[in-house]
Automatic annotation (TrEMBL):
This is SapC family protein. InterPro entries: SapC. Pfam families: SapC. The lineage of its organism: Bacteria, Pseudomonadati, Pseudomonadota, Gammaproteobacteria, Alteromonadales.
Length: 234
């Protein structure tokens, strides 16, 4: 796999650089889960199952979409094409990224120059006469939104964890008559959710957490879709 060449974006150095919209197919081929933000849960629930995974070192939970039933498997990439109708923000921001300056509370844009989406021939120009194009401005806004959405999602996830609404679960799917378990994931505990006091439930509503919780719960049905895809590809 090609090494990334991540460089700060600069109007002189990248005066003629163009970007095609798309995702990092080479990298995504082997990713069975990617981080997602609460703001896209409703759209994700139509395509992929979601889960929370726990970082054993920090104890923090991360919301993810599942693209495969085991590590290294992405059932939505076929013949080097992304086949789903939607791609989460953590994927579509590529080949651009934001990095925080160590000294200041500012972010700088970086670009992966080795990306097949980057060239001087085809795609959307980033600069025109040294000025940022409308396209680059839009991409920048999306990068900033993603950071803000990630912070909101982190707070949402921490709240669920603190209220003990996340529970370790095993999802079982059937592929061609064989049962397969997906371990190491956490789901929203529906029983616990339903036994919250009126006050706690109202708090969830006030914080705007009910919609993402219900989208998350709905998404679990998409596990059957992964099983179908796997059976079809087997």
């Amino acid at each position: 796999m090609a090494e990334q060449q991540v460089q700060p974006l600069h109007n002189e150095k990248h005066a003629n650089t163009k970007i095609q919209n798309g995702i990092n197919i080479e990298f995504m081929k082997t990713q069975h889960l990617v981080p997602v933000v609460a703001h896209e849960f409703a759209r994700i629930a139509n395509e992929f199952p979601m889960a929370f995974v726990k970082n054993n070192e920090s104890g923090q939970f991360l919301a993810v979409a599942l693209f495969g039933l085991e590590p290294g498997e992405n059932l939505f990439i076929q013949d080097d094409k992304w086949t789903a109708a939607f791609a989460p923000m953590s994927m579509t921001r590529y080949p651009l990224g934001l990095v925080k300056h160590p000294e200041a509370d500012q972010f700088g844009i970086v670009i992966d120059e080795a990306s097949p989406l980057v060239s001087e021939e085809t795609g959307n120009a980033l600069f025109e006469n040294g000025e940022e194009t409308e396209y680059l401005k839009r991409r920048k806004e999306a990068l900033v939104s993603f950071i803000e959405f990630s912070q909101v999602t982190e707070a949402f996830t921490k709240y669920l964890a603190d209220k003990e609404l996340l529970v370790a679960q095993t999802l079982t799917v059937e592929i061609k008559g064989e049962k397969k378990d997906i371990n190491g994931i956490y789901l929203v505990d529906e029983k616990k959710l339903n036994s919250l006091s009126d006050e706690e439930f109202l708090d969830l509503r006030k914080r705007g957490y009910l919609a993402p919780i219900y989208s998350f719960l709905t998404s679990t049905h998409q596990v059957a879709r992964l099983a179908r895809l796997k059976a079809a590809q087997a």
